[in-house]
Amino acid sequence: DFQNLGFEIATKLNDEKHKSLYMRMAKNTAEGILRQALSFALDYPLKYGNNRAKVFMWKIKDIKNNLKEPIKTDDKTT
């Protein structure tokens, strides 16, 4: 299953030369995170060049960082 997902990501991002990277990511990363990042990368308006793979990798990092952040609450009482 993860090989199919990795190949799908590589194809949609037009980055078949790195398909083994995407397969490894599919094996080690939650499918929801990958699909969310893929959707973001495909919808992202590219002004300079056509590097959706770079946007995809950035978004995965962004999603993972947001998951690790503790929920901030305002515990100040006045």
C-alpha Rg (nearest Å): 16 Å
Low-confidence stretches: none
Coarse structural class: mainly alpha
The count of DSSP E runs of length 2 or more, i.e. the number of strands, is 0
Q: Which of globular, elongated, flat, extended, rod-shaped describes the shape?
A: flat
Order of helices and strands: HHHH
Structural notes for this entry:
There is one protein chain. The chain is mainly α and 78 residues long. It contains 4 helices and no strands. It has helices at residues 2-12, 19-28, 31-43, 52-68. The longest helix is centred in the C-terminal third of the chain and has 17 residues, at 52-68. It is flat, with a radius of gyration of 16 Å. The protein starts with a helix and ends in a 10-residue tail after the last helix.
Write the layout of secondary structure elements.
Blueprint (H helix, E strand, L loop, with lengths): L1 H11 L6 H10 L2 H13 L8 H17 L10
Helix pairs in contact: 1-2, 3-4
